[in-house]
């Protein structure tokens, strides 16, 4: 067994490759390049809502950055999209007394026609709200509470918690309510609302305003409700759809030395929610993947395959850049030998998972051993999905890996005003870059086919 | 030496007293009363700016609470005060691009006459600003940066950091600037501005708007400034003085069984800044001192001296309740045998300091030994000041002690929207109540005179 294992090892990664990967990791750990990139993006561009003028500035920034780092063919691939603008919001408790609430409109929400001041009907969670009768709450404001999102390394609590954000409006609107207020989907206890997109109902977005309030504000409403106090809320929101605009993906290539047509795709998303400056979501992912590829670009010899960094546009508002990429490159997706995205913050990577064929699984196993000194373990070899923007490609058969980050604190900051540069630990960011540089180099320089 | 020490001990605290104090501590640690009080205040009253209608509701709440807990003569002592109202603020970066800033008006600031949009002149710290020339910055907005407040157990960084908040406006106004923006005085890195009062210049308050922005926002402006980007800020603020209003102190007594005329005064302040709900500043202090006295009230026999709980009004806006109390009780201050206030959050007490006469210092030494199981050490015996609201009384000769709390995290929350109930740890609050109950009981039941 030992000798078979050894032979397999020799077959998939050469000693030279291993040595180069290890040197890349050592260089990455000492490099400031990742912090420089995310500092530049968050400082010089700031918040960059999908479809906004700021996102356009970010694309120009991305192309200039790519050129300065030695990428080939730095370019923008445009697409069009509907633009949702947050506008100004004022929300306060008006009964049992006047108090400001810390809220924000959810993505896709309609504006108030005029200022609303209405009694609140309390629902303990989304399950209770789904049982509401049609037209039973005309003119009321629905508040759907829920439990604070569970913290975990994997972010496992997110899917459950964000039901109230995604589909709550459909039930509130059915009930005839004037507006919906929801407990934010976040694991923190700070006075920040968490933004995020709602789900469409077929082709329809909400006709009512939908506002997320912070966990402490939701706690406050719950306590008042439990005391039997009559709750009322005053609300004015300008959020609305504003028609078609341009967005785009930024593409940076390192053309491969032997098989330039074969593409190993990595990336993050360039847009951010507009409350913070999009440092951990997803300036970090852009910085990690761009810096990793830039370190590979400095090697004496290019890897065999092309490494492509994609800075996806308009991810937050519905993976619009990802769908545009998959469509624009549809004819060439069979040449995408692997795709993976960094979009889960800036804390350390702890696990490598994959969804590739059995022979390539052996390659990923060997890569995991090389990453081991970074504190990374091998995870499942049948884990679908290489990140949100990879979904449309993976659905069309592109193989994926994922370098799973510790997401325990990610949902403290996610989509809040508090997602700013100071939240990134440079050492943790560098560990990410080391892992990407080594693993992407090894895949790009390999002859192994990864298709399942 | 041992026998002298023992004799001294026997002289100042009897075994019965020691046993009662220890029982009080054990009861306090298990009691929910403190959490119930601060939960009720923050939930049922909410934010309560000095001089507001909400602060008036808080006084009625305080009287009802005192009556329900068995205090004697629960009453309000009114005073009048000028009312400063925060009003609505909008502040954003307008160059090099549009971005919301998270700010709040500082106490005493003037409104913008109309919306301002002006170039920013950057000062690295308050020392740089104090050297500005008169009328040299007409029409500009001054931004005074500084270092993030140093975190410490004692809160030692506060005095240094809050110079920019206190006197910055005097130099900005002198320079002819249209407005002053300052880095918040806070030790956190969250996107919350810290409010707080400015200092008067003689009898004059600022004629210009003065806005504190969060630490991450200030970091952002600093980085843009260091990149040489031209900064401009757009600003509209409604904060202003609105004339004389009523406020008051709530007084709750436990009349002493042998020397009712001798008063041991404890308390906190009932008002809060209006951004949060005043949980750690100073709902906690009100809860700690009221609960401690209420536990003493349940003893089979009242202590010899009167214990008085004062919920001071309008502390944040200039110790107005404290000055009113000292004036209204001037003729009787010689009967105030001790005064102390809890106003430094809700974390555990770690030290007992005092400013009493040498014989009474021995009493405080013995009290510290009894508190030792709570994790409290004896500190200085010549430390002036029993808390902010005690200053006017202490200046007129009233002896003081102080149960020093761990303030390491206090200035993360201090005067921000994030000062809410969820920030209080019930076990830490209970430790405070235990320490107050035991020490105040021992002083109230003592015959030792404390006057320096
Ligand atoms: Zn993201
Ligand atoms: Zn996101
Ligand atoms: Zn205070
Ligand atoms: Zn305060």
Walk me through the structure.
Two copies of one chain form a homodimer. Chain A has 452 residues and is of the alpha/beta class. The first copy, chain A, folds into two domains: 2-84 and 244-444, 3-Layer(aba) Sandwich (Aminopeptidase); 87-238, Glucose Oxidase, domain 1, CATH 3.50.30.30. Chain A has helices at residues 2-12, 15-30, 33-45, 53-68, 126-130, 158-161, 163-174, 215-226, 279-297, 320-328, 358-371, 391-394, 410-413, 426-444, and strands at residues 72-85, 89-95, 99-100, 103-105, 116-123, 141-144, 179-183, 210-213, 232-237, 240-254, 259-269, 305-312, 336-341, 349-355, 377-378, 400-405. In chain A, the strands form three sheets. Chain A has an eight-stranded mixed β-sheet, with helices on both faces. In chain A, helix 2 runs antiparallel to helix 14 (426-444). The interface between A and B is large, with 38 and 38 residues.
């Amino acid at each position: 067994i030992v000798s078979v294992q050894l032979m397999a090892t020799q077959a998939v990664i050469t000693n030279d490759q291993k040595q180069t990967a290890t040197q890349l990791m050592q260089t990455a750990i000492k490099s400031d390049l990742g912090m420089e990139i995310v500092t530049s993006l968050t400082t010089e561009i700031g918040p960059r809502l999908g479809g906004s003028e700021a996102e356009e500035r970010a694309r120009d920034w991305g192309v200039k950055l790519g050129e300065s780092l030695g990428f080939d063919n730095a370019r923008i691939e445009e697409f069009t999209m509907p633009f949702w603008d947050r506008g100004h919001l004022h929300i306060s408790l008006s009964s049992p007394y006047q108090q400001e609430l810390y809220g924000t409109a959810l993505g896709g929400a309609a504006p108030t026609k005029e200022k609303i001041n209405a009694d609140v009907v309390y629902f303990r969670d989304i399950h209770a709200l789904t049982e509401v009768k049609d037209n039973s709450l005309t003119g009321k404001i629905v508040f759907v509470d829920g439990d604070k999102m569970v913290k975990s390394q994997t972010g496992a609590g997110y899917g459950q918690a964000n039901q109230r954000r995604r589909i709550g409006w459909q039930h509130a609107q059915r009930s005839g309510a004037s507006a919906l207020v929801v407990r934010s989907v976040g694991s923190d206890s700070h006075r920040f609302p968490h933004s995020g997109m709602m789900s469409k109902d077929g082709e329809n977005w909400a006709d009512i305003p939908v506002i997320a309030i912070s966990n402490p504000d939701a706690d406050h409403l719950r306590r008042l409700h439990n005391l039997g106090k009559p709750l009322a809320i005053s609300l004015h929101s300008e959020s609305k759809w504003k028609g078609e605009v341009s967005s785009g993906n930024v593409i940076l290539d390192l053309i491969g030395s032997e098989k330039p047509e074969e593409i190993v795709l990595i990336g993050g998303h360039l847009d951010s929610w507009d409350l913070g400056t999009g440092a951990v979501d997803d300036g970090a992912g852009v910085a990690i993947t761009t810096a990793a590829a830039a370190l590979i670009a400095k090697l004496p010899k290019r890897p065999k395959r092309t490494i492509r960094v994609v800075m996806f546009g308009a991810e937050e508002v519905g993976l619009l850049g990802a769908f545009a990429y998959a469509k624009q490159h549809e004819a060439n997706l069979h040449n995408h030998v692997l795709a993976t995205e960094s979009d889960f913050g800036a804390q350390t990577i702890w696990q490598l998972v994959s969804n590739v064929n059995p022979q390539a699984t052996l390659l990923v196993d060997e890569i995991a051993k090389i990453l081991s000194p970074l504190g990374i373990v091998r995870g499942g070899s049948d884990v679908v999905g290489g990140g949100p923007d990879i979904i449309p490609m993976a659905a069309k058969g592109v193989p994926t890996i994922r370098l799973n980050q510790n997401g325990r604190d990610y949902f403290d900051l996610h989509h809040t005003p508090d997602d700013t540069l100071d939240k990134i630990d440079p050492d943790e960011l560098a560990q990410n870059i080391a892992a990407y540089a080594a693993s992407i180099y090894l895949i790009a320089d390999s002859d192994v086919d990864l298709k399942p």
